[in-house]
Protein backbone atom coordinates (compact mmCIF):
# COMPACT_ATOMS: atom_id res chain seq x y z
CA UNK A 1 0.00 0.00 0.00
CA UNK A 2 2.88 2.37 0.66
CA UNK A 3 4.41 1.87 -2.78
CA UNK A 4 1.34 3.01 -4.75
CA UNK A 5 1.05 6.08 -2.49
CA UNK A 6 4.66 6.98 -3.19
CA UNK A 7 4.08 6.70 -6.91
CA UNK A 8 1.08 8.93 -6.72
CA UNK A 9 3.06 11.67 -4.92
CA UNK A 10 5.90 11.42 -7.41
CA UNK A 11 3.43 11.66 -10.28
CA UNK A 12 1.83 14.78 -8.86
CA UNK A 13 5.22 16.44 -8.45
CA UNK A 14 6.09 15.67 -12.06
CA UNK A 15 2.80 17.10 -13.30
CA UNK A 16 3.36 20.27 -11.25
CA UNK A 17 6.88 20.62 -12.68
CA UNK A 18 5.54 20.26 -16.22
CA UNK A 19 2.86 22.84 -15.61
CA UNK A 20 5.46 25.32 -14.30
CA UNK A 21 7.68 24.75 -17.29
CA UNK A 22 4.82 25.64 -19.66
CA UNK A 23 4.08 29.09 -17.99
CA UNK A 24 5.39 32.57 -19.19
CA UNK A 25 9.08 33.25 -18.81
CA UNK A 26 9.89 35.70 -16.04
CA UNK A 27 10.43 39.37 -17.13
CA UNK A 28 14.12 40.30 -17.50
CA UNK A 29 15.40 42.55 -14.81
CA UNK A 30 16.77 45.99 -16.11
CA UNK A 31 20.47 46.52 -15.87
CA UNK A 32 21.25 49.93 -14.38
CA UNK A 33 24.52 51.48 -15.59
CA UNK A 34 25.80 54.40 -13.60
CA UNK A 35 27.67 57.14 -15.53
CA UNK A 36 29.50 59.91 -13.77
CA UNK A 37 28.92 63.40 -15.40
CA UNK A 38 31.14 66.26 -14.37
CA UNK A 39 29.37 69.61 -14.56
CA UNK A 40 31.49 72.75 -14.84
CA UNK A 41 30.05 75.89 -13.33
CA UNK A 42 30.61 79.06 -15.38
CA UNK A 43 31.88 81.81 -13.20
CA UNK A 44 30.98 85.31 -14.51
CA UNK A 45 33.31 87.99 -13.34
CA UNK A 46 31.76 91.50 -13.32
CA UNK A 47 34.37 94.06 -14.24
CA UNK A 48 33.56 97.69 -13.56
CA UNK A 49 34.36 99.84 -16.64
CA UNK A 50 34.55 103.58 -16.17
CA UNK A 51 33.24 105.35 -19.31
CA UNK A 52 35.74 107.55 -21.08
CA UNK A 53 35.18 111.22 -20.31
CA UNK A 54 33.65 113.26 -23.16
CA UNK A 55 36.15 115.20 -25.24
CA UNK A 56 36.70 118.75 -24.05
CA UNK A 57 34.61 121.44 -25.74
CA UNK A 58 36.39 122.97 -28.73
CA UNK A 59 38.08 126.28 -28.05
CA UNK A 60 38.56 127.26 -31.68
CA UNK A 61 35.97 127.77 -34.42
CA UNK A 62 36.04 128.90 -38.04
CA UNK A 63 33.68 131.67 -39.15
CA UNK A 64 33.03 132.44 -42.82
CA UNK A 65 31.74 135.95 -43.54
CA UNK A 66 29.94 136.53 -46.86
CA UNK A 67 28.28 139.77 -45.72
CA UNK A 68 30.69 142.37 -44.37
CA UNK A 69 32.27 145.18 -46.32
CA UNK A 70 35.65 146.68 -45.48
CA UNK A 71 34.27 148.50 -42.44
CA UNK A 72 32.86 145.41 -40.76
CA UNK A 73 35.72 143.15 -41.77
CA UNK A 74 37.90 145.50 -39.74
CA UNK A 75 35.31 145.51 -36.94
CA UNK A 76 35.36 141.69 -36.75
CA UNK A 77 39.13 141.62 -36.56
CA UNK A 78 39.62 144.50 -34.13
CA UNK A 79 36.51 144.20 -31.92
CA UNK A 80 34.54 140.98 -32.17
CA UNK A 81 37.34 138.40 -32.32
CA UNK A 82 39.31 139.79 -29.34
CA UNK A 83 36.10 140.15 -27.27
CA UNK A 84 35.00 136.55 -27.93
CA UNK A 85 38.49 135.28 -27.05
CA UNK A 86 38.57 137.28 -23.82
CA UNK A 87 35.00 136.69 -22.64
CA UNK A 88 34.36 133.13 -23.84
CA UNK A 89 37.83 131.69 -24.32
CA UNK A 90 36.98 130.83 -27.92
CA UNK A 91 39.39 131.65 -30.73
CA UNK A 92 37.78 132.61 -34.05
CA UNK A 93 39.47 131.83 -37.34
CA UNK A 94 37.87 134.52 -39.50
CA UNK A 95 37.54 133.99 -43.26
CA UNK A 96 35.98 136.35 -45.81
CA UNK A 97 34.40 134.52 -48.71
CA UNK A 98 31.63 134.59 -51.30
CA UNK A 99 28.32 132.87 -50.77
CA UNK A 100 28.72 130.69 -53.88
CA UNK A 101 32.11 129.42 -52.70
CA UNK A 102 30.82 128.66 -49.22
CA UNK A 103 27.79 126.88 -50.66
CA UNK A 104 29.87 124.61 -52.91
CA UNK A 105 32.14 123.77 -50.01
CA UNK A 106 29.23 122.75 -47.79
CA UNK A 107 27.67 120.61 -50.52
CA UNK A 108 30.78 118.42 -50.51
CA UNK A 109 30.71 117.76 -46.77
CA UNK A 110 29.89 114.41 -45.23
CA UNK A 111 27.69 114.48 -42.14
CA UNK A 112 29.73 115.49 -39.10
CA UNK A 113 32.78 116.42 -41.19
CA UNK A 114 32.15 120.12 -41.86
CA UNK A 115 35.03 122.47 -41.05
CA UNK A 116 33.18 125.83 -41.14
CA UNK A 117 31.35 126.19 -37.86
CA UNK A 118 29.49 129.49 -38.22
CA UNK A 119 28.32 131.60 -41.17
CA UNK A 120 27.65 135.32 -41.32
CA UNK A 121 25.25 135.86 -44.21
CA UNK A 122 23.27 138.41 -46.18
CA UNK A 123 19.52 137.72 -46.44
CA UNK A 124 20.05 136.75 -50.09
CA UNK A 125 22.75 134.26 -49.07
CA UNK A 126 20.55 132.68 -46.40
CA UNK A 127 17.63 132.44 -48.82
CA UNK A 128 19.86 130.82 -51.45
CA UNK A 129 21.13 128.21 -48.97
CA UNK A 130 17.55 127.33 -48.06
CA UNK A 131 16.60 126.96 -51.73
CA UNK A 132 19.68 124.79 -52.30
CA UNK A 133 18.56 122.60 -49.36
CA UNK A 134 21.95 122.88 -47.66
CA UNK A 135 21.18 121.83 -44.06
CA UNK A 136 21.49 124.42 -41.31
CA UNK A 137 20.76 124.04 -37.59
CA UNK A 138 17.29 125.25 -36.62
CA UNK A 139 17.90 127.92 -34.01
CA UNK A 140 14.49 129.51 -33.53
CA UNK A 141 12.51 128.56 -31.55
CA UNK A 142 14.28 125.24 -30.83
CA UNK A 143 17.46 126.61 -29.28
CA UNK A 144 16.12 129.46 -27.17
CA UNK A 145 17.45 127.78 -24.03
CA UNK A 146 20.97 127.77 -25.49
CA UNK A 147 20.56 131.22 -27.11
CA UNK A 148 18.27 133.19 -24.77
CA UNK A 149 19.12 136.53 -26.44
CA UNK A 150 17.44 135.22 -29.58
CA UNK A 151 14.13 136.15 -27.95
CA UNK A 152 15.05 139.83 -28.43
CA UNK A 153 15.17 139.51 -32.23
CA UNK A 154 11.99 140.48 -34.13
CA UNK A 155 10.11 137.30 -34.94
CA UNK A 156 9.26 138.14 -38.56
CA UNK A 157 12.98 138.47 -39.38
CA UNK A 158 13.60 135.03 -37.87
CA UNK A 159 10.95 133.49 -40.12
CA UNK A 160 11.86 134.79 -43.57
CA UNK A 161 14.72 136.27 -45.58
CA UNK A 162 13.91 137.81 -48.97
CA UNK A 163 10.49 136.22 -48.77
CA UNK A 164 11.96 132.71 -48.31
CA UNK A 165 11.03 130.59 -45.28
CA UNK A 166 14.28 130.20 -43.32
CA UNK A 167 12.82 127.55 -41.00
CA UNK A 168 14.35 129.48 -38.08
CA UNK A 169 17.94 128.83 -39.18
CA UNK A 170 19.20 132.44 -39.01
CA UNK A 171 19.79 134.60 -35.93
CA UNK A 172 19.48 138.31 -36.78
CA UNK A 173 22.71 140.07 -35.81
CA UNK A 174 22.13 143.50 -37.36
CA UNK A 175 19.71 145.48 -39.55
CA UNK A 176 21.38 147.55 -42.25
CA UNK A 177 19.54 150.53 -43.69
CA UNK A 178 20.00 152.69 -46.75
CA UNK A 179 19.37 156.43 -46.64
CA UNK A 180 19.58 159.32 -49.04
CA UNK A 181 23.10 160.72 -48.70
CA UNK A 182 24.16 164.05 -50.16
CA UNK A 183 26.87 166.69 -50.01
CA UNK A 184 25.35 169.69 -48.28
CA UNK A 185 27.65 172.05 -50.17
CA UNK A 186 26.17 170.91 -53.48
CA UNK A 187 22.58 169.95 -52.59
CA UNK A 188 20.75 172.35 -50.29
CA UNK A 189 17.22 171.09 -50.86
CA UNK A 190 17.25 167.28 -51.16
CA UNK A 191 14.25 165.36 -52.55
CA UNK A 192 11.72 163.97 -50.10
CA UNK A 193 10.62 160.95 -52.17
CA UNK A 194 11.64 158.80 -55.14
CA UNK A 195 8.90 160.46 -57.16
CA UNK A 196 10.43 163.89 -56.46
CA UNK A 197 13.94 162.54 -57.06
CA UNK A 198 12.82 161.31 -60.49
CA UNK A 199 11.08 164.58 -61.36
CA UNK A 200 14.20 166.59 -60.43
CA UNK A 201 16.71 164.23 -62.06
CA UNK A 202 17.85 166.85 -64.61
CA UNK A 203 18.81 169.15 -61.72
CA UNK A 204 21.61 166.78 -60.73
CA UNK A 205 22.34 165.16 -64.10
CA UNK A 206 25.71 163.41 -64.08
CA UNK A 207 26.08 163.93 -60.31
CA UNK A 208 23.70 161.23 -59.02
CA UNK A 209 25.68 158.29 -57.71
CA UNK A 210 24.36 154.88 -58.79
CA UNK A 211 25.90 151.43 -58.32
CA UNK A 212 25.67 149.13 -61.34
CA UNK A 213 23.07 146.33 -61.05
CA UNK A 214 25.75 143.70 -61.72
CA UNK A 215 27.99 145.03 -58.94
CA UNK A 216 29.21 142.69 -56.20
CA UNK A 217 27.62 145.11 -53.73
CA UNK A 218 24.03 144.55 -52.63
CA UNK A 219 23.40 148.19 -53.57
CA UNK A 220 23.30 147.04 -57.19
CA UNK A 221 20.01 145.26 -56.41
CA UNK A 222 18.75 147.37 -53.51
CA UNK A 223 18.53 150.67 -55.42
CA UNK A 224 16.48 149.30 -58.36
CA UNK A 225 14.28 147.39 -55.92
CA UNK A 226 13.33 150.47 -53.89
CA UNK A 227 12.90 152.68 -56.97
CA UNK A 228 10.56 150.25 -58.77
CA UNK A 229 8.68 149.45 -55.57
CA UNK A 230 7.93 153.17 -55.11
CA UNK A 231 6.01 153.21 -58.42
CA UNK A 232 4.75 149.60 -58.51
CA UNK A 233 4.67 147.51 -55.31
CA UNK A 234 6.63 144.27 -55.67
CA UNK A 235 4.87 142.56 -52.77
CA UNK A 236 1.42 142.30 -51.22
CA UNK A 237 1.43 142.04 -47.41
CA UNK A 238 5.17 141.32 -47.70
CA UNK A 239 4.42 138.34 -49.98
CA UNK A 240 6.29 138.51 -53.32
CA UNK A 241 4.28 139.00 -56.50
CA UNK A 242 5.51 136.53 -59.15
CA UNK A 243 7.72 138.20 -61.74
CA UNK A 244 5.55 136.99 -64.61
CA UNK A 245 2.51 138.66 -63.02
CA UNK A 246 4.47 141.88 -62.53
CA UNK A 247 5.69 141.93 -66.10
CA UNK A 248 2.11 141.69 -67.32
CA UNK A 249 1.21 144.95 -65.54
CA UNK A 250 1.39 148.32 -67.31
CA UNK A 251 2.22 149.87 -63.93
CA UNK A 252 5.33 147.70 -63.67
CA UNK A 253 6.40 148.39 -67.23
CA UNK A 254 6.05 152.11 -66.52
CA UNK A 255 8.19 151.79 -63.38
CA UNK A 256 10.94 149.96 -65.30
CA UNK A 257 10.86 152.65 -68.00
CA UNK A 258 11.23 155.38 -65.35
CA UNK A 259 14.13 153.53 -63.75
CA UNK A 260 15.95 153.16 -67.08
CA UNK A 261 15.40 156.86 -67.78
CA UNK A 262 16.57 157.83 -64.29
CA UNK A 263 19.78 155.77 -64.58
CA UNK A 264 20.62 157.68 -67.78
CA UNK A 265 21.02 160.80 -65.59
CA UNK A 266 23.30 159.11 -63.03
CA UNK A 267 27.04 158.66 -62.70
CA UNK A 268 27.50 154.88 -62.73
CA UNK A 269 29.96 153.26 -60.36
CA UNK A 270 31.23 149.69 -60.62
CA UNK A 271 31.42 149.42 -56.83
CA UNK A 272 30.59 151.69 -53.85
CA UNK A 273 34.27 152.54 -53.34
CA UNK A 274 34.29 154.11 -56.82
CA UNK A 275 31.19 156.13 -55.95
CA UNK A 276 32.83 157.38 -52.76
CA UNK A 277 35.89 158.44 -54.73
CA UNK A 278 33.54 160.43 -56.96
CA UNK A 279 31.99 162.06 -53.88
CA UNK A 280 35.45 163.05 -52.63
CA UNK A 281 36.36 164.40 -56.06
CA UNK A 282 33.21 166.54 -56.17
CA UNK A 283 31.81 164.64 -59.17
CA UNK A 284 28.99 162.91 -57.28
CA UNK A 285 26.70 164.98 -55.07
CA UNK A 286 23.75 162.77 -54.13
CA UNK A 287 22.93 159.07 -53.91
CA UNK A 288 21.21 156.38 -51.89
CA UNK A 289 23.51 154.09 -49.96
CA UNK A 290 23.99 152.23 -46.67
CA UNK A 291 23.91 154.66 -43.76
CA UNK A 292 26.46 152.78 -41.63
CA UNK A 293 29.12 152.60 -44.34
CA UNK A 294 28.61 156.21 -45.41
CA UNK A 295 28.97 157.60 -41.88
CA UNK A 296 31.91 155.30 -41.12
CA UNK A 297 33.60 156.46 -44.33
CA UNK A 298 33.33 160.08 -43.21
CA UNK A 299 35.28 159.14 -40.07
CA UNK A 300 37.85 157.37 -42.25
CA UNK A 301 38.30 160.35 -44.56
CA UNK A 302 36.96 158.51 -47.61
CA UNK A 303 33.79 160.62 -47.78
CA UNK A 304 33.52 164.43 -47.44
CA UNK A 305 32.78 165.70 -43.92
CA UNK A 306 29.88 167.70 -45.41
CA UNK A 307 27.84 164.53 -46.09
CA UNK A 308 24.36 164.39 -44.56
CA UNK A 309 21.62 161.74 -44.53
CA UNK A 310 17.88 162.04 -45.18
CA UNK A 311 14.84 159.89 -45.79
CA UNK A 312 12.56 159.22 -48.78
CA UNK A 313 8.92 158.92 -47.81
CA UNK A 314 8.03 156.29 -50.42
CA UNK A 315 10.62 153.80 -49.32
CA UNK A 316 14.31 153.28 -48.74
CA UNK A 317 15.86 149.86 -49.27
CA UNK A 318 16.88 147.66 -46.42
CA UNK A 319 20.58 147.00 -46.60
CA UNK A 320 22.29 143.66 -46.21
CA UNK A 321 20.91 142.59 -42.85
CA UNK A 322 23.25 140.21 -41.07
CA UNK A 323 22.32 136.62 -40.16
CA UNK A 324 24.34 134.17 -38.05
CA UNK A 325 23.84 130.51 -38.96
CA UNK A 326 25.30 127.12 -38.06
CA UNK A 327 25.86 124.45 -40.76
CA UNK A 328 24.21 121.20 -39.70
CA UNK A 329 26.99 118.91 -40.96
CA UNK A 330 29.68 119.99 -38.51
CA UNK A 331 30.83 117.78 -35.60
CA UNK A 332 28.23 117.80 -32.82
CA UNK A 333 30.64 119.03 -30.14
CA UNK A 334 31.06 122.35 -31.98
CA UNK A 335 27.38 123.29 -32.01
CA UNK A 336 26.99 124.26 -28.30
CA UNK A 337 30.17 126.37 -28.57
CA UNK A 338 28.88 128.24 -31.62
CA UNK A 339 25.51 128.82 -29.94
CA UNK A 340 27.33 130.35 -26.98
CA UNK A 341 29.16 132.70 -29.38
CA UNK A 342 25.89 133.67 -31.10
CA UNK A 343 24.24 134.40 -27.77
CA UNK A 344 27.18 136.63 -26.84
CA UNK A 345 26.97 138.55 -30.14
CA UNK A 346 23.27 139.16 -29.44
CA UNK A 347 23.95 140.45 -25.92
CA UNK A 348 23.07 144.07 -25.13
CA UNK A 349 26.73 145.00 -24.75
CA UNK A 350 27.70 143.74 -28.21
CA UNK A 351 24.57 145.11 -29.88
CA UNK A 352 25.09 148.59 -28.39
CA UNK A 353 28.64 148.54 -29.75
CA UNK A 354 27.19 147.98 -33.23
CA UNK A 355 25.11 151.13 -33.19
CA UNK A 356 27.45 153.39 -31.20
CA UNK A 357 30.67 152.53 -33.02
CA UNK A 358 29.49 151.49 -36.47
CA UNK A 359 26.10 153.24 -36.86
CA UNK A 360 24.52 149.90 -37.63
CA UNK A 361 21.02 149.19 -36.36
CA UNK A 362 20.82 146.33 -33.88
CA UNK A 363 19.42 142.90 -34.65
CA UNK A 364 17.70 142.88 -31.26
CA UNK A 365 14.94 145.24 -30.13
CA UNK A 366 16.84 147.19 -27.48
CA UNK A 367 16.22 150.77 -28.61
CA UNK A 368 15.35 151.86 -25.06
CA UNK A 369 18.80 150.95 -23.69
CA UNK A 370 20.81 152.57 -26.50
CA UNK A 371 22.46 155.85 -25.35
CA UNK A 372 20.48 158.94 -26.37
CA UNK A 373 23.54 160.47 -28.02
CA UNK A 374 23.15 157.92 -30.84
CA UNK A 375 19.71 159.23 -31.78
CA UNK A 376 21.12 162.73 -32.17
CA UNK A 377 23.21 161.38 -35.06
CA UNK A 378 20.81 158.94 -36.73
CA UNK A 379 17.03 158.46 -36.69
CA UNK A 380 15.54 155.98 -34.27
CA UNK A 381 14.72 152.56 -35.63
CA UNK A 382 10.98 153.11 -35.16
CA UNK A 383 11.17 156.04 -37.60
CA UNK A 384 13.31 154.19 -40.14
CA UNK A 385 11.09 151.12 -40.07
CA UNK A 386 8.14 153.17 -41.41
CA UNK A 387 9.88 153.71 -44.76
CA UNK A 388 11.97 150.53 -44.82
CA UNK A 389 11.58 148.36 -47.90
CA UNK A 390 12.66 144.77 -47.24
CA UNK A 391 13.71 143.05 -50.43
CA UNK A 392 11.21 140.24 -50.06
CA UNK A 393 10.77 139.56 -53.78
CA UNK A 394 13.82 137.41 -54.49
CA UNK A 395 12.64 136.67 -58.02
CA UNK A 396 12.85 140.38 -58.91
CA UNK A 397 16.21 140.72 -57.15
CA UNK A 398 17.58 137.75 -59.09
CA UNK A 399 16.32 139.30 -62.33
CA UNK A 400 18.18 142.53 -61.58
CA UNK A 401 21.34 140.55 -60.80
CA UNK A 402 21.28 138.52 -64.02
CA UNK A 403 19.54 140.82 -66.50
CA UNK A 404 19.64 144.30 -64.97
CA UNK A 405 22.81 145.48 -66.73
CA UNK A 406 21.39 144.64 -70.13
CA UNK A 407 17.82 145.73 -69.45
CA UNK A 408 18.39 148.92 -67.44
CA UNK A 409 21.69 150.54 -68.36
CA UNK A 410 21.84 153.04 -71.23
Layout: helices, strands, pairs:
Layout: H1 2-21, E1 60-65, H2 70-88, E2 91-96, H3 99-107, E3 118-121, H4 123-131, H5 155-159, E4 160-161, E5 164-165, E6 171-175, E7 178-183, H6 194-199, E8 208-211, H7 219-231, E9 235-236, E10 239-240, H8 243-247, H9 250-263, E11 266-269, H10 272-281, E12 286-290, H11 291-300, E13 307-310, E14 316-317, E15 322-325, H12 335-345, H13 348-358, E16 361-362, H14 372-375, H15 381-387, E17 388-389, H16 394-408
Parallel strand pairs: 1-2, 1-3, 8-11, 14-17
Antiparallel strand pairs: 3-15, 4-5, 6-15, 6-16, 7-12, 7-13, 9-10
Helix pairs in contact: 7-9, 7-16
Structural account:
Strand 9 and strand 10 (239-240) form a beta hairpin. The mean pLDDT is 91. The protein has helices spanning 2-21, 70-88, 99-107, 123-131, 155-159, 194-199, 219-231, 243-247, 250-263, 272-281, 291-300, 335-345, 348-358, 372-375, 381-387, 394-408; strands spanning 60-65, 91-96, 118-121, 160-161, 164-165, 171-175, 178-183, 208-211, 235-236, 239-240, 266-269, 286-290, 307-310, 316-317, 322-325, 361-362, 388-389. With 410 residues, it is an alpha/beta fold. 41% of the residues lie in helices and 15% in strands.
Amino acid sequence: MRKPLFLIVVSLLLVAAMLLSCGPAPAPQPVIQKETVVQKETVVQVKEVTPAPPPPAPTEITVVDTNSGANFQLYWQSRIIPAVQEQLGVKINYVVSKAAEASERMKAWEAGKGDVHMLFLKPDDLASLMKSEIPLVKLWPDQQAAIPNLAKCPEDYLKTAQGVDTKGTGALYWRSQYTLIYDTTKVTNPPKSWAEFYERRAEWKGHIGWVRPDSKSGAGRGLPYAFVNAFCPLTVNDKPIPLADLQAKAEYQGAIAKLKDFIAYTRLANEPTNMFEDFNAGDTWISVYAMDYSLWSVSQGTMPPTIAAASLSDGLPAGSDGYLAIPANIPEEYKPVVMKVINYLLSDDQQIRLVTEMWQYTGTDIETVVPDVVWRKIPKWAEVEKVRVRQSNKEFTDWVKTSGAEALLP
